[in-house]
Design brief:
This protein is mainly alpha-helical. It has two helices and no strands. The radius of gyration is 28 Å and the shape is elongated.
């Protein structure tokens, strides 16, 4: 059967192409993930540093703000 041999060869080529594409895509995806996660860590660290600086500069304002957020959350959660 010549058609089955052609079909088998076509399927084999498709599988080979798929493996080749996957082997090229996975490392690129890993690299992009590592880059993005590094950016997220850097941004989070910057936000943390800015927040700590502001708390040290104005501790009373920070305390009052935290208390206000806590009261608001308490009222909101109690009503649910």
């Amino acid at each position: 059967m010549p058609h089955s041999d052609e079909l088998r060869e076509t399927i084999s080529e498709a599988g080979s192409n798929l493996r080749k594409a996957a082997s090229q895509t996975v490392p690129a995806a890993k690299e992009q993930f590592n880059r993005l996660s590094s950016n997220v860590v850097d941004q989070t660290q910057s936000i943390e540093d800015a927040l700590l600086k502001r708390i040290r500069e104005k501790p009373l304002n920070s305390l009052l703000m935290a208390a206000g957020v806590g009261l608001f959350a308490g009222f909101f959660l109690r009503r649910r």
